[in-house]
Amino acid sequence: MPQEDYSAEQAMRYMQDTLYVTGGKWKLLILTAIHAGSKRFKEIQGSVPGITAKVLSKELKDLELNKLITRTVYDTTPVTIEYEGTEYCQSLNTMINEMIKWGAMHRKQIRD
Amino acid sequence: MPQEDYSAEQAMRYMQDTLYVTGGKWKLLILTAIHAGSKRFKEIQGSVPGITAKVLSKELKDLELNKLITRTVYDTTPVTIEYEGTEYCQSLNTMINEMIKWGAMHRKQIRD
DNA sequence: CTGTATCCATGATGATACTG
DNA sequence: CAGTATCATCATGGATACAG
């Protein structure tokens, strides 16, 4: 039984909060892509396997609403749009890196 | 731009692996409940707000298949069944704790 | 390029009742 | 207590076409 910093009820609420913002099939994958350097719509779509434009569009809006990314329109011809993680988004870095690390470890495990 | 331990493609694959095992609406909440000490079916159902017996039953089977929990039948009267995290499940502790910590921080932020 | 609109299929979930 | 069965509903996502 691990010692926790929070009660079971608190832990549950906080986990729910985290999942509310980052949960679902795509958000963490999109953040991973942006985290890794993708900025343009097509670039992100290329990085996230299987995502369609419709879904990516909706998810980017959600992330923007939650202040995790910014959408900047550059007045070039044709217009260029860049998505970037906000400063606040960086608070997710530790968590995201832990998830990636676990996935790497897990992949090793199931291969053996 | 943070320095990463993995290439963008690797990071994406590993994140996908992690989400494959722990993703979806309920798995991390169930693991949080078990992590916090819940063992019995009803206990877990009581800890995870809104989950139905049908869904919990299915999710517990998935988690068992992925070797994250064990299901033990005790031959009492009436029969007692306990779910517990495996040793392998403990490798998720850091990640889960980071998610809970982030939720706690985020809740503070949005309150202000 | 960066999306939006529409239509449709599917899987996930909810409600309720029921079993060993 | 610990689930399963059945039916209905609903959100998610896929395919395709189209727009600024």
Account of the protein in words:
Two copies of one chain form a homodimer. With 112 residues, chain A is mainly alpha-helical. Helices cover 56% and strands 11% of the residues of chain A. The first copy, chain A, contains five helices and two strands; from the N terminus they run ααααββα. A two-stranded antiparallel ribbon of chain A has the order 1-2. The longest helix of chain A has 19 residues. Chain A is globular and about 55 Å long. The two termini of chain A are 28 Å apart. The model of chain A has no long low-confidence stretch (mean pLDDT 92). The interface between A and B is large, with 51 and 51 residues. The first copy, chain A, binds a DNA duplex (20 and 20 nucleotides) through helix 4.
Q: What oligomeric state best describes the polypeptide chains here?
A: homodimer
- The SS-based structural class of chain A is mainly alpha
Radius of gyration of chain A: 16 Å
Count all strands of chain A and give the number: 2
CA-CA gap between termini of chain A: 28 Å
Query: Roughly what is the average pLDDT of chain A, rounded to an integer?
Result: 92
Strand order of the largest sheet of chain A: 1-2
Helix content of chain A: 55-70%
Question: What count of helical segments of chain A does DSSP give?
Answer: 5
Silhouette of chain A: globular
Order of helices and strands of chain A: HHHHEEH
- Low-confidence spans of chain A: none
Task: Find the biggest chain interface.
Answer: A-B, 51 and 51 residues
What can be said about the biggest beta sheet of chain A? 2 strands, antiparallel
- What fraction strand of chain A? 5-15%
